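Protocol step 4 of 5: obtain the predicted structure for the target chain.
Materials: sequence only (see below). No template structures provided, no constraints applied. The aim of this step is simply to have a reference model before the mutagenesis design in step 5. Sequence pasted as it appears in the construct record:
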Amino acid sequence: MEYSNPEFTILVGAEPNICTYNALIDGLTEKGAGPNVCTYNALIDGYCLRSQMKEAKNMFAIMVGKGCAPDVHSCSIFDQWILQE
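Step 4 output (structure tokens):
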């Protein structure tokens, strides 16, 4: 299943991708609205979806390094993708 965001496509003129979302999170962080565990989980799942396990693990390390504790879903994302390999 491919995700599509027609509102974003109309506004920006392109389909969003992982770089788009990373830039959005960076911008929010600069405004004092940093990412939470749900945000990190979405990014980690997106990297896994594209078989970019190294990037997913790096994002997990960034999450923990910034003091954001992983939850059950964080760990289940990796379990799900490891089992599919």
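Step 4 remarks: The mean pLDDT is 79. The helical segments are 6-12, 18-30, 37-49, 53-65, 72-84.
Proceed to step 5.
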